Amino acid sequence: MPTLSPALTAYLYTLTAVLGLVMGSFLNCFAYRYAKGESVLKGRSCCALCGHTLSAPDLIPVFSWLLLRGKCRYCGGKFSPRYLLAEVLCALAYVSVLWRFGLTLDTLKYLVLASLLFAASFADLHGGLIPDRLILIGLAFALVFACISPEGPVWLSLLKTLGNGLSVSLPLLVIVLVFDRVMKTDSMGGGDIKLLFLIGLYFHWALNLLILILACVVGLAWAMLLRRGRKDAFAFAPAVSAAAWLVMLWGQAALNWYLSLF
User: Fold this and answer.
1) Residues 87 and 126 in one domain
2) pLDDT tens per residue across span 72-110
3) Domain containing 119: what range?
4) 80: Cβ contacts below 8 Å, ≥ 6 apart
5) What are the tens digits of pLDDT across the range 217-230?
6) Separation of alpha carbons 79 and 2, rounded Å
7) Same domain, 129 and 87
8) What is the pTM of this model?
9) Are residues 96 and 124 in the same domain?
10) CB-CB contact of 6 with 96 (8 Å)
């Protein structure tokens, strides 16, 4: 954002970071409640250990966790560091999007995508499921953005968006179905394929292929870190989301470099 004053730039980054902290807390709460079959819109937050309703000072992102040293002020039970990590990572993701795209429509588009990816990742970690409502919300937003900033006629822009979404997810679905039928095993969850469809709506097909490759690399490293065997299930959505974030920031530059070699 070279045209803005340093003070205004710092203000925008700070505001974005605060928004990321709040959204990280909210999206993690949504995923946790979804895994338990509860609504995020009903009932106040409470301690998962003692059930005591949390007050406003207990719910300040990052600061409450640090001031209370990761413990409940009422029962002294320890909170998982996942809450702190979720808030910090979401804030960093939001700031990185603003840094990469500035004050543009792309920033709004990728902030929406980042939020959906965080919600999907947390839901996969908490309950091993990716809510269909996230896919539908992401589809609706992608179509809206395609209409707001169309590449050519609106109908063609909409078709391109849907085509990009299916460019990797559809072939992958066919491969997985054939593989599972031949090997008589479950190789990949349907939620992960739907998540790749969601991500694909926001990127060119070539970048979607790069996301799939990076997701496999990150997923393999994630599985090794968790010491999971070949037959052990683990949450793949965080790996897919991390790959999408990397491509969001540097994917086009990497693709241009690769194409320049030929």
Assistant:
1) no
2) 777 877 877 888 899 999 999 999 999 999 999 999 999
3) 104-262
4) none
5) 998 887 787 666 55
6) 41
7) no
8) 0.90
9) no
10) no
